[in-house]
Amino acid sequence: MSAHHDVAVHFISSLDSSVLRDPVTPQEARKVLWKIDMTMIPMIMVTVVLAAVDKVIISNAAIYGMKTDTHLTGNQYSWVGSIFYFGYLAAEYPVAVLIQKFPVAKFYAACIFAWAIILLCTAATQNFAGLAVTRFIMGMLEAVVFPISSILTVMWWTTEEQPVRVAMWFNQLSSVFAGIVSYGIGHSHSSIHPWRLLFLVLGAFTMLWAIVLAIFLPDSPVKCWYMSDREKFICIQRVRKNNTGIEDKTFKIRQVFECLADPKTWLLVLFSFAQNVPNGGLVTFASIIVSGLGYSALNTTLLGIPTGVLATVWQLFLSYFASRLRNMRCAIIALANVVPMTCAILMWKLPRTNKHGLLAAYYVFYTYWAPYVLSTSLPMANTSGHTKKLTMNALYFLAYCIGNIVGPQLFRASDAPYYSHGYEGLLACVAIAIAAISAYGLLCHMENRKRDRQDGTVDVQTRREDAAASAFSDMTDKEKKEFRYTY
């Protein structure tokens, strides 16, 4: 066993024998899972939705007069959308390191509180420079959201449970919340301009939520304040078969190099980039695209709500099947991407006079998010070794960042209001994403078969015992010969 053991090993070694003596019953396991679902999912979900709302509200602010009041010209608005992800990009690696240095939940809450302050400051901006600075800093602070949410997911749920749970917290309900808030503020009679009021209201709400998280979100199962020692032990035993460990604060450079040398790493990176170019474009231009079809600002905010509902339902549908069908996740992702690819063609080729057809294609295109959500657990589930997991996670969301930087640049001011070049770009990116995730799934399948051949003389029980022995050591998936990849 590796000399580096994670906190789970230390916790188990400190337990009284009475806690460890009795085998875990199915009833106990179900009760603990229910408690995890009822507490952790709401906390992660609200955080992710708030982060998305705080990020995408720029689109509704644009149709409420922000572009005029801040004197944006040419493609400056596109850069306001992109610069958020430059901040995200700048902070991604420091965040990966800081996660290892500080308690996860407290670090999470501190960053959320800080970006709430920046959101409040955005309401006071007067020009492009002010917007650029606040958006850049917000991007840096929001860089914690996906890495920490992914780490929490792997800490608390088994590989089989992860797809549905990720689909629940990594949803598109932000457009529902943003639409309702924007519509209400659009009817206000305040002396404050509606777009400024948007940032003030959301900033205050986010600040309150950060305080809630600081009080209630546990850093890990072994530090969970609302569970007994027996329940904590069951939590650890549940995720033991993930074979990815719980937590180890030691940084190991060899695990970084191993991650960089793995071709599977770069296929996931390419997929993440290609899948997020459309996201970057729509986050920034969604309301502008809809209002360009002839709808008023108020109606446009309401017309954005169905995208969140449709995307979330589709996401849960795909995640259910991914959790039921073993090693079919990559195939489901590739096939599901055919839907937004078809919609990209329709948005590109339909006559501009066909307003309802264009709006329908725009709505259904939002199914692009579900394949990406399905993929987000792959980097963590298929990577063992704490430093390697964090490196993989950082690279994956580095690609997320770059894709979102490129996305707004596809929608140029000179193409308004039809943005035909933007739709061409969306089509190309979805096609690339299909190819990348298909190749990744094939490599995982081939590696599993290779390990099965090499390990063919070892019976299943022995393999399970080997996996259990190394589950909480900080070894990588390459070093654990009993490790099998999920695809």
TrEMBL record:
Membrane-traversing stretches: 40-65, 77-99, 105-124, 136-157, 169-185, 197-217, 303-323, 330-348, 360-381, 393-411, 423-443
SUPFAM superfamilies: MFS general substrate transporter
Membrane topology field: Multi-pass membrane protein
InterPro entries from the UniProt entry: MFS (IPR011701), MFS_dom (IPR020846), MFS_trans_sf (IPR036259)
Molecular function terms, GO-annotated: transmembrane transporter activity
Boundaries of every Major facilitator superfamily (MFS) profile domain copy: 40-453
Keyword match Disulfide bond: no
One GO cellular component term noted in the UniProt record for this chain: membrane
Broad class of where this protein is predominantly found: membrane
Localization, UniProt: Membrane
Keywords: Membrane, Transmembrane, Transmembrane helix, Transport
Pfam families: MFS_1 (PF07690)
Family, similarity comment: Belongs to the major facilitator superfamily. Allantoate permease family.
Matches recorded under PANTHER family: ALLANTOATE TRANSPORTER, PUTATIVE (AFU_ORTHOLOGUE AFUA_1G14700)-RELATED, PERMEASE-RELATED
Protein's recorded name: Allantoate permease
Source organism of this protein record: Myriangium duriaei CBS 260.36
